[in-house]
Write a structure and sequence with these properties.
The protein is of the alpha+beta class. It has 6 helices and 18 strands. The strands form 2 sheets. Strands 1, 2, 3, 4, 5, 6, 7, 8, 9, 10, 12, 15, 17 and 18 form a 14-stranded mixed sheet that branches. Helix 1 packs across helix 6. It starts with 5 loop residues before the first strand and ends with a strand. It binds zinc ion. Zinc ion binds next to loops.
Length: 312
């Protein structure tokens, strides 16, 4: 597919190897009139690569002749982490999505954040950021940041209303929310499984949001029945090893105490840890679909508390 976008890449710095690091930016200018600038980013975390494919297909399918306003699309926000398939930047081990707005006096990751702010995030009227479960985990929910209508319009069945109002300090979303930019953080797909369905949902979700804000014609597809979680527990392993999942379905209700997976030593095959559904009842939000290596402190499972959830 040949994309008809204006592509530029902005220099960040030069590494000791001599390799230049650049931030990729695609711009699409709508030909149907003036309108807002919508920013789309992926791979703030380099092991969440499905977002990059979602943005590729959005650019391949968007019809600029029918579009108002402008798209600014960053398919890989952290090229070093993308190349290494790591959550954090391998050069300095910082988490790009915790250092915004960054700054030239900081580590490499802070310098990268500063470029993303200057060339993309400071120019937006609306913002959607794609995350995923990483190399081994699969996830399916949206944060409600400061634009519940847009988060709902994306069309995912499960949303999370963070108790503090919005998500993580130092994230791109904290920067745009701080500027009053309606912001949606998507957590979708990931893991060592076929991503086709997640890619399609991501593309559909972006176009639904673009309809909702009047950038493309048509009515957004009606959202499915949606569950809004108010408690979402990240279960981090205490032991590393070889995780054998037992519950592999996402966005399903399971009784409290249900075994989600077991970690074995890959050496002695001793059982090291058992993950059990913590709430009565529990909703699976991030799971491991396939047996995989797991480390202490990883995102093992994310489980929602259905007893305190809102449904519509
Ligand atoms: Zn992420």
């Amino acid at each position: 597919m040949v994309l008809r976008t204006a592509y530029t890449s902005v220099p960040v710095t030069t590494l000791a190897t001599g390799a230049e690091v650049r931030v990729p930016i695609h711009e699409v200018r709508g030909q149907a009139g003036d309108g807002p600038t919508l920013g789309l980013t992926a791979c703030l975390h380099g092991d969440e690569q499905v977002g990059t494919e979602i943005l590729y297909r959005v650019l391949a399918e968007v019809d600029a002749a029918q579009m108002k306003g402008r798209l600014l699309v960053v398919p890989v926000a952290n090229p070093l982490a993308y190349g290494a398939i790591t959550r954090h930047t391998p050069l300095d081990m910082h988490n790009l999505n915790r250092v915004f707005p960054g700054g030239g006096e900081g580590f490499f990751t802070h310098q990268l954040a500063e470029v993303l702010v200057g060339h993309v995030l400071s120019k937006l009227d609306y913002y959607v950021d794609f995350h995923a479960g990483g190399a081994y985990a699969t996830v399916d929910y949206l944060f409600i940041e400061n634009a519940e209508d847009l988060s709902r319009a994306f069309g995912s069945p499960v949303l999370f209303r963070p108790p503090g109002g919005y998500g993580y300090g130092g994230s791109t979303a904290s920067y745009t929310v701080g500027r009053g930019v309606p912001t949606v953080t998507v957590e979708l797909g990931g893991g060592a499984i076929d991503q086709t369905a997640y890619v399609r949902r991501g593309v559909t979700g972006v176009f639904n949001i673009m309809r909702e804000i009047g950038m493309i014609p048509g009515e957004p597809a009606p959202a499915p029945r949606q569950t809004v979680l108010r408690t979402l527990l990240t279960m981090r392993p205490r032991a590393g090893g070889f995780l054998i999942p037992e519950v592999t379905a996402l966005n399903v209700e399971v009784p409290q105490g249900t075994v989600l997976g077991r970690t074995l030593s890959p050496y002695s095959f001793e059982e090291l840890e058992v993950f059990r559904a913590p709430f009565s009842p529990s909703l699976t939000v991030l799971v491991r679909v396939t047996p995989c290596r797991i480390n202490p402190g990883d995102y093992g499972y994310m489980i929602g508390d259905l007893s305190t959830a809102e449904t519509t």
